[in-house]
Specification:
CATH superfamily of the largest domain: Neutral Protease Domain 2
Distance between the termini: 66 Å
Mean pLDDT: 94
CATH class of the largest domain: Mainly Alpha
Low-confidence stretches: none
Radius of gyration: 19 Å
CATH topology of the largest domain: Neutral Protease, domain 2
Strand content: 5-15%
Structural class: alpha/beta
């Protein structure tokens, strides 16, 4: 019997248990080490490495970090940033701390890489990155505020994509894509299973039923209107206060609204 390999890890920051992930396998990777940025790697199965558009992914990630650092008033909170394409992943993507996992469908194997498809993946990249602050650095106290966690990352990803020159080729379709995304909310809101954006969650089953177009699409539309009323500078000031007061803690909707109200 051979001796097993032993790996030692540094003590992590205090984070929610649902944000941990262990990824193992015969992955290949691309690597980026840029001054002022955390070390980054993009992993995929070795047989699929040629399908990974790593240069654009690194550009989106680095641009997003600059935007969020300014908007939130604090730098990227963890010591590395990995992005992993996982075979048979059961979701689109997941914002584990310092390690985002993606469905391999985003590699677009054998498909034409249209502007809409690449813009959509860039948006997903920015969405999961935004969660490193809003969701991971500050985590909602309970699942009734799941909508705010997801809606915030959704709206911020579109805002980042619309503002930066690095994403100029997407500027003409970014908000059109957002409006189409809201169609998910309209469809969900027209069903008998519709619910308020923010509602009481008592059981695990309750939590599982609200990962829908209302929690993501309708909530992000509300945030977009809030942003329109407050303006960039007021929103930015409120977010600075939010992260100053609540980093490494749990929050509720009144905590978030209170910081925006203070800035207003």
């Amino acid at each position: 019997m051979t001796n097993p390999q032993v790996f030692w890890f540094n003590q992590s920051a205090r984070i929610s248990t649902y944000l941990y992930a262990i990824v193992a396998g015969p992955y290949g990777y691309y690597e980026s080490n840029v001054e002022g940025m955390p070390p980054m790697r993009i992993y995929a199965r070795k047989s699929l490495m040629s399908e990974v558009n790593h240069e654009e992914m690194f550009l989106a990630t680095q641009t997003g970090i600059k935007f969020y650092t300014d908007l939130f008033g604090c730098g990227y909170p963890f010591n590395k940033y990995d992005q992993v394409f996982c075979p048979e992943f059961n979701a689109g993507a997941m914002e584990n701390v310092g390690c985002v996992t993606y469905n391999e469908a985003y590699l677009f194997r054998g498909q034409q890489k249209t502007l809409q498809k690449t813009a959509g993946f860039c948006n997903t990249n920015l969405h999961e990155l935004g969660h490193m602050w809003f969701g991971n650095l500050v985590t909602m106290k309970w699942w009734n505020d799941l909508w705010l966690n997801e809606s915030f990352a959704t709206f911020m990803s579109y805002l980042a994509q619309a503002k930066f020159i690095e994403f100029e080729k997407y500027h003409g379709i970014t908000w059109a894509m957002f409006n189409r995304y809201k169609g998910w909310a309209y469809r969900q809101d027209g069903l008998s299973s519709t619910h308020a954006i923010c509602g009481e969650v008592v059981t695990t089953q309750d939590a599982e039923t609200i990962f829908d177009g209302i929690s993501y699409g309708k909530g992000s539309a509300w945030l977009k209107q809030t942003y329109k009323i407050l303006g960039f500078d007021t929103m930015r000031a409120g977010l600075h206060r939010y992260f100053q007061e609540h980093s490494w803690k749990n929050t509720t909707l009144p905590d978030f609204v209170g910081c925006l109200d203070w800035a207003w």
